[in-house]
Amino acid sequence: MTTDVRVLEPAEWDAWYGNLIRAFGGVDESSEERELWRALTEYDRSIGVWDGDECVGSAGAFTFELSVPGGACVSAAGVTMVSVAATHRRRGVLTSMMRRQLDDVRSWGEPVAVLTASEPVIYGRFGYGTGTLNVNAEIDTARVRLSVPPGTDDVRLRYAPPADVLDACEAVYARLVPGRPGMLARRPGWERVALLDPESERGGASALQCVVAERDGEVAGYARFRVKPEWTPSGHNGTVVLEDLEGLDPVVRAALWRFLFGVDLTTTLRTRGRPVDEGWQHLVSDIRRCNLRTRDALHVRLVDVGAALAARTYQAPVDVVFEVEDAFCPWNEGRWRLSGDPKGASCARTEDAADLALSVKELGSAYLGGVSLASLAGAGLVRELRQGAVAEASAGFTSAVAPWLPHGF
Description:
alpha+beta; single chain
């Protein structure tokens, strides 16, 4: 089979995007959705695989700034829109795209690539490790009570059309990005994604609603949600479906959660993709009736090991030599000395003896501080070559708060 892997041209977008939609089941999209994704596509960072005039593969990379431990952001390629036509499976199409893309990311000087995976098993062989987990919950608000901290009653809540308060909500989000690894600094245009509200995706629930939390006349938090009414012979049994919630401090967040628990004519609050360490879990009266489930979220790939490890800080002093295996990006292979602490870090090639041996996939998993090197060592995926090196490195890599990806891309 002869195929052509090339950078996407604007005139090719419909065929390229059509291949993607078909690969994900061919679900119809609204014209608003389609045009938004067309506008967000970065053509010079997108590639297609063509068999004659037919597009049989697609992949793109959004330009992101990814928050890392220490509050800084690192340039990251947000891998997206990956598809292979079912007629061209097992012919090396995906591998050829991943090869081209990672070479491109390296040439752009971006030390990290990230993605969310429709099938996580696919991307491990290209060096991506699971870096964050998210929590889904289905809370029985008819039985679960929420305790709130002092000052919650001082927060003013009001309904507002989501589009009318979009700028204020984005300002809240932007202030929170440095405080939690894994969050993405949103570029202009991305704020529109949160407002997409096609009826076909509501699942019988209402149009998107928004409540903002105000303090001293300023927006300090918000919740975007839907309400799905339901009636049974015994009465109301509606569901609140939370889409997004952010707040600048625990009191504001508690006020928003209390509101969601008390929406009239509902008995269930359904959430998805929330931080694993979110504070509401400590305020509920019965955590078992919240039905928590975790799942993988952001997958992380270090494209430049030295630059990536030097871009973050470390909770405790660390001075360790890694022996890195990376067959797919061999420029990363070999020994790297990482020296870091809460103030900064450096990472450079070294000839010194290695303290730990691991693959770039495990480094990606540990990079944001949500997966411990000690846990990976316990699974046999990190080999300790100097006694005590696992404990030292694991303490340094830990993040004070769990990393969290707030939305997909």
